[in-house]
Amino acid sequence: MDDYKKHTTRDGSLSLYSLSYKEGFHDKDGALRESINKYLLPAQLEEVYNAKKIVVLDVCMGLGYNTGCILEELLQRNIKIEWHGLEIDQKPLNLGLNEKIFQEIWSSKVLHFFNCLNISGKWTEGVNQGTIHWGDARQKIFEIQDSLRFDLILLDPFSPQKCPELWSEEFISLLTARLSTEGRLITYSTAASIRASFKRAGLNIYSIVPSTDDQRKWSSGTVAMKKKIEQQLIEKNCQIKELSTKEVEHLATRSSIPYRDPTGKGNSKEIISTREIEQSKSQLINTSSWRKRWNTAR
Question: How many CA atoms lie within 13 A of 262 on its CB side?
Fold first, then answer.
């Protein structure tokens, strides 16, 4: 039996459901829309349009929507692109490239990029280049030149409870070390454990504002940076805001206890079990008290 079930989201774009992880790749409201709202817009690419080069890392590329949206913007500019991807399974990209509704989303240049990765794992177009590193991201990240610093890291694994291996404090530290001084690490996750790990890694964190048609959520994701975002850029981009009091208090609860994977080889059950034991012994505020205070189920 195939591990993935294909389905069309409400915006008409293709997505997948993983039978192994028992989790969908995207919001049901729209795979393409999610990548635009949670990754492309918070990246504020207009701020790097004057750059000579931008270096991108896509962690858990999946179908490729996040990278596709970024490349559609950058390939229109005279900016040199170096791209790296970390992905354990080639099948999602292959499935997407065989679906007309996926193909029709992208320009010929981006489709060429996807096809190159699918066939050879490499992409070259003029001065631009890209490489996909197939396999466990915890090991494959070391295939990337150690001195390379990323201007943009797109972190998009399955949720922490499903794939804690790629949300561990140790893996986040590895990503932080590879982030450039001005770079942005962007993720859909709002989990206190992940945000707290970002902070312990020395990053400044910001909340991604939910789209106007999804005000049920209090945040749509997180942007993490080594440098603070200037206030004028926050005001200019309505997609990003400072953490609210509610979000700050969330970081003081037991939910903020990190996922730990010191060997870089732990499995999900081990990592989750270790965290649950640490939570049971913690003196931090119980998360249920925080939920009650803020009248939230999340």
Answer: 2
Place of tokens 């001065």: 127
Rounded to whole angstroms, the Cα distance separating 130 from 20 reads 29
Q: Give the length of the chain.
A: 298
The tens digit of pLDDT for each residue in 38-85 reads: 999 999 998 877 888 999 999 999 999 999 999 999 999 888 999 999
DSSP-assigned beta bridge partners for residue 6: 16
The one-character DSSP state at 27 is -
Q: pLDDT tens, 124-141?
A: 999 999 999 999 999 999
- The token pair at 231 is 């206030």
Question: Quick one: CA dihedral 137, 141, 144, 147, positive or negative?
Answer: positive
pTM: 0.95
Q: Please give the class, per CATH, of domain 31-294.
A: alpha beta
Q: How far is CA 109 from the centre of its chain?
A: 23
Q: How many CB atoms lie within 10 A of CB 10?
A: 11
- In 3D space, the residue among 158, 165, 138 whose CA is nearest the CA of residue 269 turns out to be 165
Domain regions of the chain by residue span: 31-294
